[in-house]
Amino acid sequence: MGDLLQDLRYAVRMLAKAPAFTAVAILTLALGIGANTALFSVINSVLLAPLPFPQPDRLMALFTQRVAFTTGSISYPNFLDWQRNNRTFASLAAYTPNDFSLTGSGQAEHISGEMISADFFSTLGVQPASGRWFTADEDRQGGAPVAIISAGLWKRKFGSARNIVNGRMTLNGVDYTIVGVTPESFHLRLMNFPNDIEVYTPIAQFNDPVFRNRSSGMGTKGIGRLKPGVTVEQARADMDSVAAQLAAAYPVENKDSGINVMTLKDSMVAEIRPFLLMLMAAVGFVLLIACVNVANLSLARAMGRSREFAIRTALGAGTKRVVRQLLTESVLLAAGGGALGLLFAVWGKHGALSLVSRSLPGTQEVALDWRVLLFTFGISIVSGILFGLVPAIRTVRPNVQEALKESGRGFSGGRHRAQGLFVAVELSMAVVLLIGAGLMLKSLSRLWDSNPGFDPNHVLTFDIALPPAMANADAGAIRAQLRETHRRLAAIPGVESVSTLRGSLPMGSDSEDPFWIEGRPKPVSDGDKYWAIWSEVEPEYLKVMNIDLKKGRFFTDQDSSKGPKVAVVDEDFVEKFFPGEDPLGKYFTDDFIGPTQIVGVVRHVKQWGLDDNKLAMHAEFYLPFEQIPDKYMSRATRRTTLVLRVKGDPLAYVERARRELLDMNSETVLFMPRKMSDIVYSDSVLAQRFSMTLLGVFAGMALVLASVGIYGVLSYIVGQRTREIGIRIALGARRSHVLRWVMVEGAQMAVVGVVVGVLAALGLTRLMAGLLYGVSAVDPVTFASVAGVLLVVALVACYIPAYRAMRVDPIVVLREE
Question: Which has fewest Cβ within 10 Å: 42, 481, 709, 725?
């Protein structure tokens, strides 16, 4: 400890004597450590940290699995059988979204809701902040209307009233008794919910007839808690057995239908994990470059102190003692860089989350907790050893007499090989990062340039909930109310066209349906049926979205509820189900709509994002909104989407549209207004944009650090060889020759680094091939462009010390000698 304290005191004195070196080294390390810490804090929260529930590793997510998809929704009758027949889960719970209009408490407003089974919260292991959860008697058809509210709604709407339990609230025109409040820390955005849920109702009370159909999932998902000692593999085998039993008992609905069991954590992060791991590798490169840069500076400084260490060795200091002294200085520098890096990490974390908070589950929990602090401490120590070890070993020379005889005026070229190697390593890693950033930028550019199949510009979309009393109206009255809504919105100045929509909004929501084609053998089960994406729209929908009609016709006002059922399909539908045939006049049927004639073909619209490769299901068909079967029209009262093509900024029309709706009825609610251009060009590419932005930032940092590195090495070499350069000029060497000599020395380091970096990138970029769109992982243009840019930047960095060498005055140099 005495030696350590002595080393620390001496290290502080030596670093204080070189303030420029100390400041540059600490700042360089702070950039690398700060970037790593900021990104690790996100990864720690999203990928590594357990969910904030008791025994989170026992929590599973359950989905229906078919050929067309692996994470499909669950039919409620099937879920009840899963509950009864499984042997590996202590509890299973179901949940599905629902929309509520809150009335009777000020202006009517939309509330994001979730229908849950009675054991939903107990399965998660969550305790109420106030009151209780639902009972089994309440979670049934005909049960008492009860609700659980979030802590946020309790505070916002009820002023955190202590007597909230057993209080009343009116949802969709029904009086509910509030029986519980969720904890303030609980929010379902942890589980990939698009919005914070504010109210929960019993799922079994949902009286929609389709909800009780084994062929329909209606967005229902499941969670389960494993029994003690049960593994995930055992649970999967058990649920496979349950699926086989259901297939035998209900072959029409459940043939070829499986049950997908995965950990709840994996279900949340499966899509984002590749992006985050790629970014963590990239930011690791930035830290390595920072370490190499500081190692170069430390090596140059240590070589300048070689006589000092030779004298210490001659006076009895052992080699290990000298190495330890240098390592102490390095670790002290790294500690300073780590401390400053933590400050950078706070700024960087907020910047990163502002880019992509909606696409990352669990970002509300991102914090610099003990894991992050431990990570920062660890990489600071490792960084100090990494950049300090090579200079320490390089500086300690066994031939003390030779070192003492040196005048310190210069070094041979061999002394600079380690520094040249460091520069080449920096440049090679910078090349890899720049190529990765270039590929992501090109990929994102191709995504933005891709045609989504419609024109999202100047299109406003929002959802409406009709007055709760309309839920009990007949289908004709609901259709009339929606026609009046259409008429009023279309009359707003600047609105060019309007359409209502149910089902699938491109890149915003989706609905799928099984069907079969008339004239072909009828499938014996739902598993044998075809699947496609569907939307119910009005005649003006093509005009609103600017979708091309390829063949036949689109809907007209004659396609009413009393007319023959018709449909329009897209090009993918024709290619998949009618290859080489004319689909016009053909019929297809499903259990909900009945026989439907195809009257037109439109261009394919990308449903799953601009890359449109998330699911195998691409085929789409459209139905007239007016032909929604009467028994299903009540759904439209809870939520119907409107799309409007307008002049100018779409969001400027929101308040006028809201006033028109309130003029019709004060209990009509408009919610979730969005620009279609934001949905298409921003929301659908959040993960790619996040990756591209951060990768670009890391690549820029790497380029700057590498440029500083090559500049610093050449500046040091020129400074050490000033006497040699002066003598050369005095003996007749041209200054242009000196310039060329220094430039060539720098160019050699740059070329070696770029070549090695390109070769490394050829292998490493293949790992990100699945993240790219429309560009090869070994795109020659990107590789050549990056190599060229980096060489130019490196040569510019070389020119300044080369120019300084060329300006050496031989007379001044010789006089000093």
Answer: 481
